[in-house]
Amino acid sequence: MNLRVALAQMRSGVTPAANLGAIASLAREARLAGAQILATPEMSLRLDRDRTRLLAGLDSGEDEAALARIAAIARDNALHLLLGSAAMAARETGKAVNRCFLFAPDGGLAATYDKIHLFDVDLPNGQVFRESATYEAGATACLADAAGISIGLTICYDLRFPELFRALAIAGAWVIFVPSAFTRPTGEAHWEVLLRARAIETGAYILAPAQGGIHEDGRETFGRTMAVDPWGRVIGTLDHQEPGLLVVDIDAQKSIEARSAIPAFRALRRFTPL
After folding, report:
1. Domains of the chain, first to last
2. Which of 3, 109, 119, 217 could form a disulfide with 131 if both were Cys (CB 3.0 to 4.6 A apart)?
3. Measured in whole angstroms, how far is the alpha carbon of residue 181 from the centre of its chain?
4. pLDDT in tens, 226-266
């Protein structure tokens, strides 16, 4: 089955309003390009590393209202719209969840996924990230249907955990999305090689819409939105950090061919852990 997918590269700010305008514009562009799916990056609605300001913003209810607007954008453009993720209040813990939303072309909510692996790292350049201080981790993988194709949902740091991708592929995913906001240092070192590795390991398309550039909250993200085919070939990239749209055509038959050529899943064996 053939499918045209649009991957959005964004530079999201700290409040949903301006980001919603960017998503609406990208959706119109995707529709005109003939895409059936539009996918946006991680933290499309609100990208803010100031924990106090982020959680105060979530308490306002503005983000919940923004989701209704996203549903309308999907409906108005007759697109499957994958909101790569948004911070949503987890009121029982006082934290947030980093949640991906898949909307159907009629505006209905088709699936959600909460980021499982949280980015708690100390980078060599001195940058420190502690997502677990602000977010609750998810615990459940998500397989969904979009335009007749089974897709797997992941978010950013999940990319470093191949067991999640393998589980999605074995469950039937032909395409796995990786909406991201990679830092520049980790992006320069690992972005392309990790995306290609996950594609080769799973025999699936790996589609990664990304945040790019210097954001309103002061952080810098890597950009370089990328699409990789099931044989590990890069079939499209935005080789910069600027906002834009990458449109690619995918063919589920390519996944079948890749998994037939290298039938790695049939060779899986149980073993005793060290």
Report:
1. 2-262 (3.60.110.10)
2. 119
3. 9
4. 999 999 999 999 999 999 999 999 999 999 999 999 999 99
d(CA 251, CA 37): 14
pTM of the complete model beyond 0.85: yes
Instruction: Please write down the HEC assignment for all residues of 22-47.
Output: HHHHHHHHHHHCCCCEEECCCCCCCC
Active site residues: 42, 115, 156
In this structure, the strands spanning 220-222 and 212-214 are antiparallel
User: In 142-210, at which residue ranges do the beta strands (DSSP E only) sit?
Assistant: 142-146, 149-153, 175-177, 205-208
Please check whether residue 85 is in contact with residue 42, taking contact to mean a CB–CB distance below 8 angstroms.
Answer: yes
Q: Are 7 and 227 in contact (CB under 8 A)?
A: yes
